[in-house]
Structure formats: structure tokens, C-alpha cells
Amino acid sequence: MSPSRRHDRHGRSPLLFHAPVPAVRSRAEEFARVAAILLADIRLRVEGELDSVVLTVDDIPPVDADVELGRVLPATRDEPAVIVLHRLPIAQRCTDELDLADLIADVLADQAALLCGRDPDELRPR
Fold it and tell me: What is the pTM of this model?
């Protein structure tokens, strides 16, 4: 559509969202946002033990892995530890947003517990 046209060929005007409203967020962005909020809550519970940990979200696990919801990549000399969440396997197990947030919290707590040697129930956001 040329910049001078206000409507498409069907007479509809384009939808414009100038502010970062929820209609602009994709499912992947919303998943990442919820996961980041939940990890921030877990970080508060462990008093600095997970401050250098990086959170990443992949759509699916690697081909050589079993179906997994998340995994931890341990820290190396050059890179910090990474918690990886696999978005599609997690989302497929949920029926609504509340289930999704609960499952993300469970997976994050399990993975964070592996890194800091604590009980996952102690880390799970409420």
C-alpha cells in the first residue's frame, strides 16, 4: 500500500497501534514477559544467587533432546548460566493464561533450583 493511500483496495483503513498496547504483543512476547516477571520474583527469593543468570525462550527443544519444558546451560568461564524455556511444549499443556503462568513458574522454579541447590517449592512464585 502506498503511503498516500488511506485505505486498502477493500476500503478498510489500516490498524495503527502507536502505543505498546496488548494488541501489539505476540504470544511469544507475552510468554517472555510473563517468564521475566516470574524469574524476577524468584531472584528476590534467593538474594543474589541468580543475578547473573540469563533467561531465554526458545520455541521448541533441540532435535536431539527429549520433549522437555526447560533446561539449564551451566555457566562457563566466559558466559553466565542460562535458563532456557521451550515455549510451545509449555503452551500446549495449558488451557488458559492462568495455567500457562503456573506452568512457567513451575518450570522456572525447577531450573533455578538446579542452579542454586535449593528446593523448587521454596523458589516457586506465589
Answer: 0.78
